[in-house]
Fold this sequence. Notes:
The structure holds two protein chains of two kinds.
Chain A: E1 2-14, E2 17-30, E3 34-38, H1 45-53, E4 63-66, E5 69-70, E6 78-81, H2 93-103, H3 108-121, H4 137-149, E7 155-159, H5 167-184, E8 187-191, H6 195-201, E9 204-208, E10 215-220, H7 232-259
Parallel strand pairs in A: 3-8, 3-9, 6-7, 7-8
Antiparallel strand pairs in A: 1-2, 1-4, 4-5, 9-10
Helix pairs in contact in A: 2-3, 2-4, 3-4, 6-7
Chain B: H1 2-24, H2 36-48, H3 51-83, H4 85-100, H5 107-114, H6 118-142, H7 146-154, H8 159-194, H9 202-211, H10 215-247
Amino acid sequence: MELVLESVSKTFQTKQGIVTALKDIDLKINEGEFVCLIGPSGCGKTTLLNIIAGLEKPDPNSRIAIDGARVEGPGPDRVVVFQEDALFPWWNVVKNVEFGLRMKKFPKAKIRPLAEEFLKMVHLSKFKNFYIHELSGGMRQRVAWARALVVNPKMLLMDEPFGALDAQSRETLQIQLQIIWSIIGKTIIFVTHNIREAVCLGDRVLVLTARPGQIKREYKIDLPRPRRLSNTKLIDISNLIMRELKVEIDKVAKEERGEE
Amino acid sequence: MKSRHLWKISFYFLLVAVWELLFRLHLWPEFLFPSPLGVLQSLINGFVNKTYLVGIFISIKRILLGYGISLIFGILIGLLIGSIKILDENVGPLLLGLRTLPSICWLPLGLLWLGLNEKAILFVVIMGATFSISLATDDGVKNISPIYLKAAATMGASGARRYFNIILPAALPSIATGMKLGWSFAWRSLMAGEMLFVSLGLGHLLMMGRELNDIKQVIAVMIIIVLIGILVDQLLLRRLERSIRERWGLEKF
């Protein structure tokens, strides 16, 4: 599996005029890679993820292809894991996990065992009959992983999935995600605004510029896994990236002050 | 919790005591202002000789039919205008207008079209309740959290399966609110309709009380009407709405 983006741009028409959210993004992601996207808020990292997911359309001359086939819309080969609760509260945990399989018209007899297998992987077998409102934030996130992975996608697109969680659950999930990723070996594209989280999780960290979003630099992270946030080398790399990003954050701040 | 119930009981006790006091002051003649005990006696008599029981039974039978039909039509219309833009733009404002029409205003039309009978009463009930159920359902469909739709799209849900698995359940909290609203409109409309002729329901018993100059019966039947209205609203529909909203994560109790 190989994901290729060629000169992907995205412009919006707003009342204030045309806004360029993304400009000429070229990117290649290999099978099984864990890629993190970071950037100042409003740089279009979520827009980029949505475009890869097929939930938003890029400008006409952009090209996105998976194994040479053009991406034309959403599909179960690219499942998105959202920050907010995108689990369905009207079903219990196991029914949520089964959802994608039912939509795919998977053979009925195989749906339940497969869903339970993935619940086991995220250590939630005991909670299969619980409703979503009865779970903690960290558990909900893991249900979302199981729901996404059960349909056997080519890649997992994660949009600030830990954004709403407290620091402790975040750290636990960072470790768990690395373990699961090492088992399933699927491509993950992970959007975050937390630099240390990006360095902790990614094989590569891509830094986006302030609007219009472009890839400013990319960092290869060669630290042994599973990594922890407290790793000193991880902190050093994060500080390095922080300096880079600071320039972009200042740009945004200036622009905001200018507008006032 | 306990002390709250105690307050409630004391409040109603006080209310009855004031009523009794006013009665004993003989400010108004007894045929205009009955005593609480007189009303209680009328209630007991009505239940013993079964006139009130029959009235309750007939009214409930009518409301089940009328409210049931309103629910089916109301939810269907709401889902349609919520999902189809052109219908929404054209039919939506019409429904909004029709909802403001007090249900009793449908009665002349019902009488002309259907005659002075059972059907006219049902017509008024249905017209009184359907539109508010439709509009609440429509509201529910329109305000579905976009995150559900995105998640559904990314998992490959479309067409009818998207509708029944996502849109309908996601709109359910609003539909429950609509059911509650619809119930109160339906119950009021039914009482208004029943007062018009020998319909044998609670509304008719109310008018019979007036014709017989029996103020005790009038008040007794009014109490029954209020109690049934509250019972269904609080014990049935509010609980349903609450449990749905709780599970949907919209409220914590």
